[in-house]
């Protein structure tokens, strides 16, 4: 299982992650991405059926703003560097 979170300070609102994983990533009024399942806290496991989509989004983010980990982020996208 994996956790994911968006580092919103570096997100450029390109729209790629929501296209890759629409059940996991959505955008705020300015187009900045967030994780739907835990309000971008990185505290809930990504449901198994969406893991491949999240990995695609992770690999496709042009600014490396999508973080993934096997452990909770506790709301901090930079928790693991
Ligand atoms: Fe932001 Fe990256 Fe998603 Fe583009 S792919 S909207 S830069 S988090």
TrEMBL record:
Superkingdom of origin organism: Bacteria
Entry cofactors: [4Fe-4S] cluster
Presence of the UniProt keyword 4Fe-4S in the record: yes
Domain 4Fe-4S ferredoxin-type: 2-30
InterPro entries reported for this sequence: 3Fe4S_ferredoxin, 4Fe4S_Fe-S-bd, ET_Ferredoxin
Record-linked Pfam families: Fer4_13 (PF13370)
Keywords: 4Fe-4S, Electron transport, Iron, Iron-sulfur, Metal-binding, Transport
Function, in words: Ferredoxins are iron-sulfur proteins that transfer electrons in a wide variety of metabolic reactions.
Protein name (database record): Ferredoxin
Lineage: Bacteria, Bacillati, Bacillota, Bacilli, Bacillales
């Amino acid at each position: 299982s994996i956790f994911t979170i968006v580092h919103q300070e570096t997100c450029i609102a390109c729209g790629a992650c929501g296209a890759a994983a629409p059940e996991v990533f959505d955008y705020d009024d300015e187009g900045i991405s967030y994780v739907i399942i835990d309000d971008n806290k990185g505290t809930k496991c990504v449901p198994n059926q969406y893991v491949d989509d999240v990995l695609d989004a992770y690999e496709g983010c042009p600014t490396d703003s999508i973080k993934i980990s096997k452990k909770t982020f506790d709301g901090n996208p930079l928790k693991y560097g």
